[in-house]
C-alpha cells in the first residue's frame, strides 16, 4: 500500500509540471495604425485576436490597442522593434522614410492589383524579399490584408489639362505625392481628423483618402463634386508586424496558429473592404447625384506614369536592394497583368457589352 502511494506521488510529480506547462498563458499586445473606429481597416486586429484565442482554447491572448490610445499611429514599427508591443497592424509604405524598399510590400502608383500582389508575395518571391528588408528592424512582416483599389480622390474643380494641376493644393501622401509634386501640385499632408475642414474651407483644393467606404464616412461627397478613379494605390497591402524575439519564444504550435490566423485574416480583409466599398459606392451613386465620377484625361495619366517611372528609377539608381526588389516585382507584374487583362479585364468588357 505504502509503495503504491509513493508510486502515485511520483507519477503526480511527473504529470503536474506537464499540465502546468500546457496551461501556460501567452499575453500579447498589438498596436494598430488605425483608431478602433476606422473600419474596415481596423477590423483585422480584433478578428486576429479572436481567432488565435479560439484556436488556443483561450491560452494565447492578444490585446488590440488602437491609435487613439497609444497615440503613435506611425510609431508602431518602432514600438514592435523595441518590444513594447509584440505585434502591429499597419501598412509598410509608412516606413518609406526608414527604408524606401518597404513600399513594395504595400503599393506604388501604377503597381499591382491586390490579387497580383498576393501572387507575388506567396508565389513570386515577395515574402522572401520582405523578410530581408524587415529583418533589419528586428521584426517579421506578414501580408496583412488589402484595401483594394483606392480612388484618385476628391477634387473641387475638374482636372481637364495638366495645367489644372499646377499650383493645386492637395493632400496626397507617399510616393504619389512625390509624383504629383513633379507635376506642379502643391502637396501637403494633413491629419485625417482635419481633412474635411481643410477641404471645406479651401485650405486644400483636393485630397485622396481611401475608397468609397471610408470616404463616405468622412463626408467628402458633400463638399467636392469630382471623384476620380484610382491610379496611385491599385491594391495596397496592409501588414502584420511581429517582434522576432517574441515570435521565436512561442511554441511551434502557437507559431503555426498565429501564421495561419494572419493569413486567414488577410484574405478576409480584402473581402470585407471590397464589400464595403461596393455598398458605399452604390450609396454615393444613388444618394449624391451631384458627385461626378471622373478618370484623369489621358495626357495627365501619361505624365503621371512618366513621373512615377522617374521617381522609381531615381531610387533604384541609389539603392541596390530597392533595384533588386523593383525588378522582381516588375517582371512578375508583367506576367500577372497580361493574365488579369485576358481574364478579369475581358469578363468586365464582355459584361459591359451585353448589359447587366
Ligand atoms: Ca490613400
What secondary-structure arrangement, pairings included, does this model have?
Elements: H1 2-22, E1 26-32, H2 44-55, E2 60-65, H3 67-70, H4 76-81, E3 87-90, H5 114-123, H6 126-135, E4 139-146, E5 153-155, E6 169-171, H7 174-182, E7 186-188, H8 195-201, E8 206-207, H9 212-218, E9 226-228, E10 237-243, H10 244-248, H11 252-287, E11 292-294, H12 298-318, H13 320-354
The structure holds calcium ion (CA).
Residues 150, 208-210, 233 line the site of calcium ion.
Q: Which geometry do the CA atoms define?
A: globular
CATH fold call of the domain at 2-146 and 235-276: D-Maltodextrin-Binding Protein, domain 2
Cofactors, ions and other ligands in the entry: calcium ion
Query: Which CATH architecture of the domain at 2-146 and 235-276?
Result: 3-Layer(aba) Sandwich
Superfamily (CATH H level) name of the domain at 2-146 and 235-276: Bacterial extracellular solute-binding protein, family 7
Total DSSP helices: 13
What oligomeric state best describes the polypeptide chains here? single chain
Determine the mean pLDDT. Answer: 94
Please report the distance between the alpha carbons of the first and last residues.
84 Å
Order of helices and strands: HEHEHHEHHEEEHEHEHEEHHEHH
The whole-angstrom Rg is 24 Å
Structure class: alpha/beta
Major sheet description: 6 strands, mixed
**Biggest β-sheet: strands ordered side by side in the sheet:** 7-6-8-5-9-11
Strand fraction equals 5-15%
Amino acid at each position: 500500500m505504502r509503495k503504491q502511494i509513493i508510486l502515485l506521488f511520483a507519477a503526480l510529480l511527473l504529470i503536474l509540471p506537464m499540465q502546468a506547462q500546457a496551461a501556460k498563458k501567452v499575453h500579447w499586445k498589438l498596436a494598430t495604425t488605425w483608431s478602433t473606429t476606422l473600419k474596415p481597416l481596423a477590423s483585422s486586429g480584433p478578428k486576429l485576436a479572436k481567432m488565435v484565442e479560439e484556436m488556443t482554447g483561450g491560452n494565447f491572448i492578444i490585446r488590440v490597442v488602437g491609435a487613439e490610445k497609444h497615440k503613435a499611429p506611425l510609431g508602431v514599427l518602432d514600438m514592435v522593434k523595441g518590444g513594447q508591443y509584440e505585434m502591429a497592424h499597419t501598412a509598410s509604405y509608412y516606413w518609406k522614410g526608414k527604408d524606401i524598399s518597404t513600399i513594395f510590400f504595400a503599393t506604388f502608383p501604377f503597381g499591382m492589383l491586390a490579387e497580383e500582389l498576393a501572387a507575388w508575395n506567396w508565389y513570386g518571391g515577395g515574402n522572401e524579399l520582405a523578410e530581408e528588408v524587415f529583418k533589419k528592424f528586428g521584426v517579421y512582416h506578414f501580408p496583412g490584408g488589402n484595401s483594394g483599389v483606392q480612388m484618385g480622390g476628391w477634387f473641387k474643380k475638374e482636372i481637364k489639362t495638366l495645367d489644372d494641376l499646377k499650383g493645386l493644393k492637395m493632400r496626397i501622401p507617399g510616393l504619389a505625392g512625390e509624383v504629383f509634386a513633379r507635376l506642379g501640385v502643391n502637396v501637403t499632408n494633413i491629419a485625417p481628423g482635419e481633412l474635411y475642414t481643410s477641404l471645406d474651407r479651401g485650405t486644400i483644393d483636393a485630397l485622396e483618402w481611401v475608397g468609397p467606404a471610408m470616404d463616405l464616412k468622412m463626408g467628402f461627397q458633400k463638399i467636392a463634386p469630382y471623384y476620380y478613379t484610382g491610379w496611385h494605390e491599385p491594391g495596397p497591402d496592409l501588414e502584420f508586424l511581429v517582434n522576432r524575439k517574441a515570435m521565436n519564444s512561442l511554441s511551434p504550435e502557437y507559431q503555426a496558429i498565429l501564421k495561419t490566423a494572419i493569413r486567414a485574416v488577410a484574405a478576409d480583409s480584402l473581402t470585407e473592404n471590397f464589400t464595403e466599398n461596393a455598398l458605399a459606392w452604390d450609396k454615393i451613386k444613388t444618394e449624391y447625384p451631384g458627385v461626378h465620377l471622373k478618370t484623369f484625361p489621358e495626357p495627365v495619366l501619361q505624365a503621371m506614369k512618366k513621373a512615377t517611372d522617374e521617381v522609381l528609377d531615381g531610387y533604384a539608381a541609389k539603392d541596390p536592394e530597392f533595384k533588386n526588389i523593383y525588378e522582381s516585382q516588375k517582371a512578375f507584374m508583367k506576367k500577372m497583368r497580361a493574365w488579369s487583362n485576358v481574364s478579369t479585364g475581358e469578363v468586365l468588357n464582355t459584361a459591359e457589352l451585353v448589359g447587366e
